[in-house]
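Re: the 295-residue chain
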Amino acid sequence: MKILVVGMGLIGGSVCKTLKKRCSYTVHGCDIDEKILERAMAEGVIDGTGKMEDGIYDICIVCLHQRVAQPCMKQALPFLKKGSILMDMCGLKGQMVLEFTNACRIAGVYYVGTHPMAGREKSGYEVSIPDLFDNANFIITPTYGTSSEVVEKVKSLAKEMGFGKIVLTTPHRHDDMIAYTSQLAHIVSSAYVKDDCMDDAVSFSGGSFQDMTRVATMDEKMWSSLFMDNRLLLLHHLELLIAHLSEYRTALEMQDEAALQLLIADGRRVQEENVRKRKRDLEEKEQKKHELDEG
């Protein structure tokens, strides 16, 4: 099987390194930066270079920002190998999945929208690693018209690459959850560091501070476009957060310790239930694995 990885940044570079480490497929790379391709070739990360328009690949994995990915995919679509799989790893799915599912079906190509839930504080090929996806979640967003057989092939490839939990969901549900679990967290981190105490925070900080500030070093161009492209869903969750924060502020202003305790207890209850749910899911997964091993 021949696989082309388009975009050799953190995600694309890690995809290539993972495939070469874990699989026996022929892997080619595509990037506008020739120096990156030369480096990847020299390091044995890819077997060669190519482009989607070559029409020789069984799977094309597009690892670009969605604003760049969409025009590239549209341009290449007429040239892709018939019966091949076009999959993207863009951070948002939404309307993109609907459009390309239909367009690819007409072109005789199978499209699957995916999103690997893995990353690092910095971007670029130089920080890509072969174990980035180990036990990470892998999201697949099939919609009406998506081939179930091809989804199974993509799931199988994800498992070969070391992903842990594979989640199937709708494009809208994906974008809503990403707004909450990722984009909102980045906004909170960016806002959190804008405090007078940041000048000497390292001398007084522990794990909670590090967790809160880790992603504040995000790339402003990439993340601002992600925020804007998912604006309505992100605004919904941001408004909920502001409303909840206001409850804590009011309790402090009114010196209402009882109310503050209730707010904290409610937050603990929600998190403890979340922890219990994750534990149940893990136990069920281990039980299924045990049954399969015995069978």
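The CA atoms of residues 251 and 293 lie 54 Å apart.
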